[in-house]
Design brief:
This protein is mainly alpha-helical and 291 residues long. 71% of the residues lie in helices and 3% in strands. A two-stranded antiparallel ribbon has the order 1-2. The longest helix has 30 residues. It is globular, with a radius of gyration of 19 Å.
C-alpha cells in the first residue's frame, strides 16, 4: 500500500507539473520560443483565484469564480502579447526568452507587494475531503488534478490537430514570415496562444492552490515543469503530460528510498540522462521544419 500511495501522490503532483509544461509547449508550438515565466503565470492565476474566492477579499462562490479567473488570466496573456511581445515580431527567439525570464521576476515582485510573502490558503471545496480505499488515501484535490489534466491534454491535442487556428499556430511556429505571406494573421494567432497559455496556467494554479498553501515562490515550479517538458519531448502535448508524471513520480520515491536531499536532484539527473541518450525527449514528435 505504501508503494501505491507514493505512486498516486506522485501522479497528482506530476499532473500539476504537466499542466505547467503544457503552457511551455503551447508557446513553443506557436512561436518556437520558451516562456520561462509560465510558472509565475501559474502562481499569479492562483492568487487571482484566491482574491476572488477568499472571504477577506471578494468572497465569490468558488465555481462562479473559476471562469472569471480563467478570463482574467487569458486577457492578461493576450495583453502581454499585445503590449510587449508583438514589438518583438521577427526578432531572435533568444530575446524573447530573456524577456520572459525578466517578466517572471516582475510578476513575483508585484505578487509580493500585493499579496505579501507569507503562505496563504485558497478556500477551495476540493480541499475539504479525502477518499480512502484499501489503505490508500487520496484527496479530492489530487483526484481533480489528475482528471482535469487528462481532459485538458486531450482537448489541446485535438485543438492543434483538428482546428484551423491550431494548424495556423503550428504554421506560424515553423516560419513566421512565410505564414504571414500565406495569409495567416500571425500576430493575432500568437495573441490567441498567449491567452490560451494564460488560461492553462490559471487552471494549474487553481489546482495547485487547492492542494496546499500558496506563496510567491510557487512560481519556481516552472523549473520542474520545464524539465518535464524536455524529458517528455518539447513540442509534444502528450509528452509534456508524461514528462510531468515522470518527474512527479520520481520525487516521492526518491524521498522515500534515497538519502535526504536526493529527491531534489533526481528529476534533473533524469533530465541530463535524457539529453545525453535521447535529446529530442522520450515522447518527442520529430519533424522536418518547412521553410
Amino acid at each position: 500500500m505504501e508503494f501505491v500511495q507514493l505512486l498516486l501522490s506522485g501522479m497528482a503532483n506530476g499532473c500539476v507539473y504537466g499542466l505547467v509544461a503544457l503552457g511551455f509547449v503551447l508557446i513553443y508550438k506557436a512561436t518556437e520560443a520558451v516562456n520561462f515565466a509560465q510558472g509565475d503565470f501559474m502562481m499569479l492565476g492562483a492568487f487571482v483565484m484566491l482574491t476572488l474566492v477568499n472571504p477577506h477579499y471578494m468572497g465569490i462562490n468558488f465555481w462562479l469564480a473559476v471562469p472569471i479567473a480563467l478570463l482574467i488570466m487569458g486577457a492578461l496573456g493576450y495583453l502581454l502579447d499585445l503590449a510587449v511581445l508583438r514589438h518583438m515580431f521577427g526578432q531572435n527567439q533568444t530575446a524573447i526568452v530573456i524577456l520572459t525570464i525578466a517578466l517572471g521576476f516582475v510578476i513575483r515582485f508585484f505578487a509580493g507587494v500585493i499579496w505579501g510573502h507569507e503562505p496563504v490558503n485558497l478556500h477551495s471545496p476540493l480541499a475539504l475531503g479525502d477518499i480512502r480505499a484499501f489503505g490508500v488515501v487520496l484527496s479530492l484535490a489530487d483526484i481533480a488534478v489528475i482528471i482535469v489534466t487528462l481532459i485538458m491534454t486531450m482537448l489541446l491535442w485535438q485543438f492543434f490537430q483538428r482546428t484551423k487556428l491550431g494548424l495556423a499556430m503550428q504554421a506560424a511556429s515553423q516560419n513566421q514570415m512565410a505564414a504571414y505571406y500565406m495569409g495567416i494573421p500571425v500576430r493575432r494567432v500568437q495573441g490567441a496562444v498567449w491567452a490560451l497559455a494564460g488560461v492553462v496556467a490559471c487552471v494549474a494554479g487553481i489546482l495547485y492552490a487547492s492542494k496546499g498553501s500558496l506563496d510567491i515562490s510557487a512560481g519556481f515550479i516552472g523549473i520542474k515543469a520545464f524539465a518535464a517538458a524536455v524529458i517528455g519531448g518539447f513540442g509534444s502535448l502528450p509528452g509534456a503530460l508524461m514528462g510531468g508524471l515522470i518527474v512527479g513520480i520520481i520525487e516521492p520515491f526518491a524521498a522515500r528510498y534515497l538519502p535526504p536531499g536526493y529527491s531534489q536532484i533526481a528529476p534533473y539527473a533524469l533530465l541530463i540522462l535524457v539529453l545525453i541518450f535521447r535529446p529530442h525527449g522520450l515522447f518527442a514528435q520529430v519533424r522536418t521544419k518547412k521553410v
